[in-house]
Amino acid sequence: IQQVFKQLFYMVNAVTLNNLLLRKDVCSWSTGMQLRFNISQLEEWLRGKNLQQSGAAQTLEPLIQAAQLLQLKKKTSEDAEAICSLCTSLTTQQIVKILNLYTPVNEFEERVTVAFIRNIQAHLQERNDPPQLLLDFKYMFPVLFPFNPSSITMDSIHLPASLNLEFLNKV
């Protein structure tokens, strides 16, 4: 069950983050607020179902950071440093793309300046990020089956001759 929810939450993360990276109309402060609220509801649900140890919440980390990026101030050099230290699960390319797509929804907000984006790129140039922008929403985590030892001992097992396993010898 834990593995199923980890996979499901990863897919939610990947599809949502990919939509955020591809749609200018959703890159705004209010979308960041809505995303953060929805993610907190998912985290609360995991706690309620006692699934915190499943790793499902950790798969949402890039989306959490993207929501926070949408909500942070984007003007000064200190803001750039804060963004760089906060967005460790996002690639440089993803951070820059979100900042380029950021669209103010009211007159109190301002567009992100080109100088600010260049400042972010300068701070993040030493990162070795993968070149891909979008997340692979078809990625599948490996399924792990727990080992449950049998109470039957090997010396009590009889192998029928019809199985043609004469090469196996009891030691």
TrEMBL record:
UniProt cross-references to Pfam families, sorted A to Z: DIL
TM stretches of this protein: none
InterPro entries registered for this protein in UniProt: Dilute_dom (IPR002710), Vascular_dev_regulator (IPR052072)
Recorded superkingdom: Eukaryota
SMART domains tied to this protein: DIL
Molecular function (Gene Ontology), one example: GTPase binding
Residue ranges of domain Dilute in the record: 1-126
Name of this chain's protein: MYO5B protein
Species for this entry: Casuarius casuarius (Southern cassowary)
